[in-house]
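Recap quiz, item 2
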Amino acid sequence: MIFTYDLTWILLLPTLGGVLAMAAPARLSRWVALAFSAATLVLSLWIFWRIAAATGYHFGSVTDPKADPASIDVVQLPWIAFQLGSVSFRIDYYLGVDGLSLPLVILNALLTVLAVIGGWEKPRVKEYMALLLLLEAGVMGVFMALDLLLFFLFWEVELAPMFLLIGIWGSETEKHGMPGRIYSAWKFLLYTFFGSIFMLAGILLVYFQAGQSTASLPVLMQHLLPASTGVTLPLLGVTMGSQLLAFLLVFVAFAVKIPMFPLHTWLPDAHTDAPTEVSVILAGVLLKMGAYGLIRICLGLFPDGLQQFAPLLVVLAVINILYGAAICLVQKDMKRLVAYSSVSHMGVILLGVAAAAMAIHTSNPDVARFGTAALMGATVQMISHGLITSLLFFCVGVIYDRAHTREIEIFGGVAKRMPLWATLFTFAGLASLGLPGLAGFVAEYMVFTSSYRIWPVPTAIAVFTMILTAAYLLWMLKRVLFGPFNLRWNWLPDASWREAIPLVTLAAFIVLVGVYPGFLLDVIVPALHHLLPVATTALGR
Amino acid sequence: MYGLYEYAWLILAAPLASFAVIVFGTRMADLWSRHHGQTAQDYAAYLREADPAFAAWETARGSGGHGEQQHAAQAAGHAGEAAHAGHGGEAGHHGDPYDDDPTVPYLTPWAKLSGYVGVVLMLLSCLYSWVLLFASLGLLPGTPRLPEEGITLFSYTWGSDAAFQPYTIAFHLDNLALAMTVVVTTVSLLVQFYSQGYMAQSAGYARFFAYLSLFAFSMLTIVFAANFLVIFVGWELVGLSSYLLIGFWINKRAKPAEERPAPSSAALQAFVMNRIGDVGFILGIMILFATTGTFDFATLAGNGPHGVAQAFAGNQALLTLAMILVFCGAIGKSAQVPLHTWLPSAMEGPTPVSALIHAATMVAAGVYMVARTFALFSAAGPQAFEVVAWIGGITAIFAATIGLTQTDFKRVLAFSTISQLGYMFVGLGVAGTEIGPGAGMFHLFTHAFFKALLFLGAGSVLHALHHAMHREVQDMRLMGGLARFMPVTAATWLIAGLSISGFPFLSGFYSKETLISLAFEHGNYGLWAITLVTAGLTAFYMFRAFFLAFGGKGGALGGIWGGPYRGEGTPHESPVTMTLPLVILAVFSIFAGYWVGFFQYLDPHAPLLDLGKIFSDGLTWLGVALSLLGIAWAYVLYCAVGWERVHKVVEANAVLRFFHRLLLHRYYVDTLYDWIVRYVVLGLCHVAAAFDRFVVDGIVNGVAGLVMELGSGLRRAETGKVQAYMTVFFGGIAVFAVVVFVLATLR
């Protein structure tokens, strides 16, 4: 029975919660949302605990056929199967979590709970809560799906609630002749659709080229597309390996989501116009969908294609990192600044992946170790960026709810009236600039020191982001929190208890990951170890 | 085996514990008690007087409904702005609540408890480190000396996988670390004790002690670091403590008339400039790591396959480059040219902070780091040490010349610190392998005490003047004759001044003369000349400061002791919480130099410090003569002639005026940097932002616009007829089927 699997309930609980929040009377709906999102969190933690207890903290990899069944959690049931002439078409209800996806599932569950708490006093709260929970369900599906077509389905499902959340609760500031929320919602939707079309084509290419009559990721990873056999594109007349072609098609969708230069411009708009909690989810988990897909699918299915693309990817990564940071320095809006800082920080993930992609080529175990560490750093960056940027957005949300503006120059010395909030905002800024002892440092230090072995010059250039990051974050903090007190803000009350809950929770996790990253790294690394050797054998080493 | 030493991590843990206790415990209670009960009423009454914004805020908060509240808030805002403008007009006058540290009528018991927690735990750390120091000298019966390679205190890796093996958090104790630990804990303890008096009325009393504890923890992390990862962690964390403490007075304004930035700007500048050095540091670490596969100091210095000797065999130039890059970190942290401008700005922090962080310990972290990685520098080409020595030498004379003209009491000391740090790098750079890091570290050791004393003494003066004049005064032209009012401060300051000037038999004499003669002995005559001249300049500007602040024409002993006071009110000697640390530091400033086995303590193969040779060497006395000349010249100018007349002479002479302006404006380096940041860096960022908006996003919006145009043309297709839609729908499916078919046949 489908309902006996706990992964089903990870999807069902938020969905049910969303429906019930709609159905319940307004007074109750937020409590319903809180209960169901909390239940999802508890369930995801329970899965984590169960695997940890059963295996002695040895997490497996869902794409590894030899993985200990206790070390992962998988459900596979047939769903759609039909024969069309010689073509058989099959989609499975195939979900699984392992060391790579489980931390992201927990992150998603955690951030949704905090978003529900953060959005407690929104207008039209019923719909708001319902859509937040439906969004959670969609994202959960993306992180858990192991059938490529199911993955695609959830990839699209997530769009609808996000579109509505930005479009209805977004800001009214006019952009290009329409309210910002409308403009940004459409921009977000069209950009993602644009990527999705390519991804669908790529997935179908893999499906039919592999000839396994299944879109199951573990199966396809055993039957990689030929790296050398060429495909000639019908219109362009370019010949390339079919694996590279499939990679490029699928990667476009991930590149939009990450977002990678030059496909990033939807992000600042979506962030500035989205309400606080939606920004949190957007930065915290939606961007991670792209990075997760890059590691899980591109590295798993197209190691050779990814490797051929790596020299370009590393250039784009450096552009992301430095270009994003440079733009941050001249932003006038706090949220837009944080949005561009995401572009910069997500570039670190690209850098780590680009290094790992080159490392799988090698027969030198030393270089392989550097590659693993770089990929590990990239994966930790997914989690730490999720925590830190969410904290930053929550902090900006607190002041925005009071002052109804986020313009940096208008404030000044606000720490005088809001000491608690100022402390946490400063903490968030410091975490984001990669202060040791906090989560961001672990990821960035690992990526930079390891990637240097593989990409010396690009990494050496990228490291200069340390200066820019410190400058734009601390400069923003200085102008908003410190310096002469602007008496215009004399009336500001400090963050309330309800507002402080998400801030303090995230801060605690940031310290935990920063001081003792082992508990996270040991969960993730087996899944990556599986990805890299698979890729290595594929290259015929 | 090494029982006593193995608990040395407690020295590190104690300040972290006091940080946690204060931040999550006593400071919370302090803030809570200031908002509740009788204390709250007292505070409110006090704030109504002291802070005009507070009354408005209270009214706004007290009023009922939301709309009403908004209205009141607006009114308050207007009233506030009016008050604001009024204050702008009479800036600098007594009572401007934003010009100063916000004060409280009295400290709550919780605030006081925060101070006690910090001081007591620091005292325990300090005592323990002294016990360990004596034990490691073999003076403690029953406890062996530390082994030469040291012991590991504790370590854990970031993950259990083999790929994470280099990423190890490990703490390590050896003689070098222990010598530094003693300096850090002792100065920290004295500064914390002193702060109980200095910060007695500060509203941020508890916060201050939390930051000081955080700093002690961070600094000890550097000291105990066993690898480049941990030292980098500590490196950034001291940067954080420095940032928090420089910006401690969060709302204080800039003072353009005195060329003083706002503390918040100074803090930002300090952090970002340090980050510039840190990029070099991490690049150096990356080269070392990529080549050897380890961060560990001992492994890198060893002869194994992961040691630099083997890993860089045949590629010494790369190692040299790596070490020069690592040294960039030290340039930033120790405020060497060209990354020195943050340190004078950092003087905007409270004075105890300047003493602890920006004079005695944190800025010396760069010196310590070079000493720690001395073996790696030795393995690199000679250029690495040459860079270290020459950066140090240039900085020493560069900062000393600026120090000649500054009128701000703390800034003189700041430039003196930069200059003395330069000396230390000269010591490290010219020493060579047979002497080891001893010479540079010895000057660090003695300098920590007398420079802390100079700053705390300056703090005592500023504290007294603040009470006398009811405003912040740091300009030495408003002091004078203070020795009459505050004899203990003056006497201890005099001792420290003599010590830093290299007056015979005081600690600075031994460490500095050793450095200078080392430069000569190793044939580095250029650096020898520079350090010699700098010694004279140092003596001059220190005594210029002493005579301007404490003496003056017409005072006792020919103007040395007391003289006309140029300020207002009557200053008084500081309380005993402040003078006691001064006296203790004065004792250290005299006797710290008599640790003749210092070189050997750090490196058993190094020679003993030969006092006889120092005294019999003619070159030593040349240095002393130059220092005495500097003192004498300062006496002539500021006690015999008087600064007003000196000033007139300088202003009247075009050449002198030119040099005075040049030095007073610190060679215009700050101006240049300001220009670069404002026009080059931000300019490029504006270009990037415009490119993003008009090109990257412009193309997207252009395409979207085009589609919209097309769409409005196609609108006619929207007939509203279900049949038409169904046709398109099935047509779409047909197209899709064809695509699938084509793809399927591709294989």
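Chain A touches chain B through 75 residues (CB under 8 Å).
Residues 365-403 of chain A form the longest helix (39 residues).
End of item.
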